[in-house]
Amino acid sequence: MEFMTGVKQKDDVSVKALLETEEGSEIKVQGAVHIIRDMGEVAFVVLRKSEGLVQCVYEDGKVAFPLKDLKEESAVEVKGTVRKEERAPGGVEVCILEIRVLSEPTEPMPLAVNKWKMNTSLEAMLNMRPIALRNVRERAKFKIQEAVVRAFRDFLHSQGFTEIHTPKIGAKGAEGGANIFKLDYFHHPAVLAQSPQFYKQMLVGVFDRVFEVGPVFRAEKHNTKRHLNEYTSLDFEMGYIEDYTDIMSMETGFLQYLMELLKKEYQKELDILNVKLPKTDQIPSVPFAKAKELVAEKYNRKIRNPFDLEPEEEVLIGRYFKEEYDADFVFVTEYPSKKRPFYAMDDPKDPRYTLSFDLLFHGLEITTGGQRIHDYRMLSEKIAARGMTEEGMEQYLSAFKHGMPPHGGLGIGLERLTMKLIGEDNVRETTLFPRDLSRLEP
To answer: Is 174's pLDDT higher than 80?
Structure first.
């Protein structure tokens, strides 16, 4: 009988351990053959591991395995000795003594993943996503995305938040409107969640501060560079707030924490993607109506929609605050009530506007948030005033009947935030497996 006693200690070295290994030491390293550079009597066999590349040196007569039998993208195990070499990745290479093939490809590679840039279309990369992601630059994008989620979780835990996991199949959409995916749920009508909004509000009455990282679904017939039909939302909701600026301050703290984490632990990926991190020491905020006026005046643009920001206006607001204040982010506050959900708290001084905000990053909305209505009567009156029905929201509303603290929260689009961080202009570039109007595979 065998018993498991914990994680097995493997003798395969990581890239980090290799860089710290004494020269002349014999080691074993496993990875995929990224590229083979045959120079005649000597060849460089570069292995790809999750943390980076390892340069191995193959010398004729020193290795029993014939070089001609080694294929790129084979999974291999190499035994060899460590040697310092400034020109190798990390300044270290492995002189090969033995090679063992663990598996090998049966077809030629459809994409040149071992090139710095694959020089192919985004459509081709998405069609062959599991292969394209092996490219070092493509992979680095999602390490940056990992950092965003990691920072979100770690920072909010440090601020007393509890992580929650809410259903993605429900009876009613939280946002209302027509952009809902409907489905049959055992002969009952159901929808895919547009957001965890109802659940996170209800759970503020339980945990005070909650957050979630999870998918949301929007049946929007958009085919733009900024829209997806399924994306990952970073949500939090916090109780006992003074006003909605508490939420903006919390997001600012998260962004500051994220930038420090990226500098400390993801510098390699930042260098690969040539990323210059944005400023987060202070983020300006401007009321919605004022933002429209500023860009209309400076860029001679007529205000066409008084109730919402057009994409071009978002770009110009970002440009204005970069030029005037050298700001990469800007909070646009006090959105018109007409364009906000029923649970948004109206401004008591002017109910045409709400105590809400969007955060723009280089001219793109990445966050929507604000203070919520916490009084049951006020919430019920607003639902009625909008001609809505309370059907399907009984459980949500019951939480407010039994008392809820003043609260608010936000949702951040993970893919959009990552896209702007690394300087891409299409959200599909920072989505592992995008879902849009025309794509359900891979």
So the answer is: no
